[in-house]
Amino acid sequence: QQQVKQSPQSLIVQKGGISIINCAYENTAFDYFPWYQQFPGKGPALLIAIRPDVSEKKEGRFTISFNKSAKQFSLHIMDSQPGDSATYFCAAIPYSSASKIIFGSGTRLSIRP
Amino acid sequence: DAGVIQSPRHEVTEMGQEVTLRCKPISGHDYLFWYRQTMMRGLELLIYFNNNVPIDDSGMPEDRFSAKMPNASFSTLKIQPSEPRDSAVYFCASSTSGAPYNEQFFGPGTRLTVL
């Protein structure tokens, strides 16, 4: 049972373009929604996160958009750079078990120069 | 801080052998997590500890898998006997109570190949 559904599975974007990765969830008990970035041969690392009481959070070129009523959230990478090429995981954390991260299936992003 | 340390980085073994993966969490962190990553199943939480005590092992696939945390600075994940379907990258992560968004810090992983 996939509690957090992520799409697309892979994405190719030209340098300077906007990369968009989408996620959806069913469980309304989720309280935090982090995004993790993973480079080849490395472990995932926290990139940006949002609580459901806000609709958008921006950190530099990375923005999370959150739609609580639709139970959807997305990551936007503005002015995508080759160094952004990595696998991105959306995730959700239930308030009942704040340490248990439920990860999406991941999106392999490639930025073409 | 050196971050989460895992060893070995790569392990190749034959079916039926015992495999032990090791993890040293970040000093001061009181949560430790073991994950498995495969192409088919993505990133799965196997087990996590709080203050050296196992809290949730519902992700451990079967009795062949066991994990221990004898002290705050060391944990092991053991597979006995190993099978080819156990081939995956195993990550250890740690976090501290009250960290924003419960950020987990991942180690570099151990790539396990069971022949």
Kindly summarize this structure in a few lines:
Chain A has 113 residues and is mainly β. Helix content of chain A is 0%, strand content 57%. In chain A, the strands form 2 sheets. In chain A, strands 2, 4, 5, 9, 10 and 11 form a 6-stranded mixed β-sheet that branches. A 5-stranded antiparallel β-sheet of chain A has the order 1-3-8-7-6, with no helix packed on it.
Architecture blueprint of SSEs:
The complex is a heterodimer of chains A (113) and B (115).
Chain A: E1 4-7, E2 10-14, E3 19-25, E4 30-38, E5 45-50, E6 56-59, E7 62-67, E8 72-77, E9 86-94, E10 102-103, E11 107-112
Parallel strand pairs in A: 2-11
Antiparallel strand pairs in A: 1-3, 3-8, 4-5, 4-9, 6-7, 7-8, 9-10, 9-11
Chain B: E1 5-7, E2 10-13, E3 19-24, E4 31-38, E5 42-50, E6 53-56, E7 65-71, E8 74-79, E9 88-95, E10 105-106, E11 110-114
Parallel strand pairs in B: 2-11
Antiparallel strand pairs in B: 1-3, 3-8, 4-5, 4-9, 5-6, 7-8, 9-10, 9-11
Q: Characteristics of this structure?
A:
heterodimer, A: 113 residues, mainly beta, 6-stranded mixed sheet, 5-stranded antiparallel sheet, globular, B: 115 residues, 4-stranded antiparallel sheet, 0% helix
Structural description of this entry:
The complex is a heterodimer of chains A (113) and B (115). Chain A is mostly beta strands and 113 residues long. Chain A has strands at residues 4-7, 10-14, 19-25, 30-38, 45-50, 56-59, 62-67, 72-77, 86-94, 102-103, 107-112. In chain A, strands 2, 4, 5, 9, 10 and 11 form a 6-stranded mixed sheet that branches. Chain A is globular. Chain B has no helices and 11 strands. The radius of gyration of chain B is 13 Å and the shape is globular. In chain B, strand 4 and strand 5 (42-50) form a beta hairpin. In chain B, strands 2, 4, 5, 6, 9, 10 and 11 form a 7-stranded mixed sheet that branches. Chain B has a 4-stranded antiparallel sheet with strand order 1-3-8-7, with no helix packed on it.
